[in-house]
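Meet our chain:
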Amino acid sequence: MSEPKHISCLIVDDEAMARDIIATHLSKICNIKVVASCSHAMEAFQVISSNTIDLVFLDINMPEISGISFAKSINKDIKIIFTTAYRDYAVEGFELQAVDYLLKPISFERLLKAINTYFEVYSQTNNKGFTETDNNQFMFVRADRRMIKIDFDAIIYIESYSDYIKIHLADETIVTRETISAIEAKLPSKQFIRIHRSFIIALSHIVSFTNEHVVIQGQALTISRSYKKEVLDLLERF
């Protein structure tokens, strides 16, 4: 399977902290290249004139030249994800056919969703979307009104219940409001495999398997028909 092409991104925001937060989030996503981070529109114009830019993270409320004015003046092939602390600009932003509209403070999960929206709508290279890089050893999920760090090595398997998932660890189970597909995008593909629309398992915790089930932590989890070939092809190579 071919890898998706790199997306060349530009960050434009007059607040340094806001630029740093976006850049940090983007550094966790594979196939993303931040070409430049600009504090005002004139600097951004110069970057665009000398570089190929696919996507701009653009603050709306900037001095001198607003994000809306900037978006109207650049090549329409360059897609925009607006960022702002004010909800009132959303309608005008979407009238410009923005990919998405992110309200500050921007969480990593929300930014990743916006990147995948860009990918699904505008990229023709691959239909798998973008994920966190396999270099990361952990992720954060929201549970009990806080963000909890979960090491990938600690995950045994993940179980879906509609819009909620249970993340089974050795000594506890964490429940978070998330879809299994969204959580799958955060997991390193070399460590985990989806065996069913309701189950993702850690390869290192498999005890045994048959053509129908994988045994993990004393549980026999069903391999569904739609995932069977991919799962068995992978497991039989071990």
In short: The longest helix spans residues 108-122.
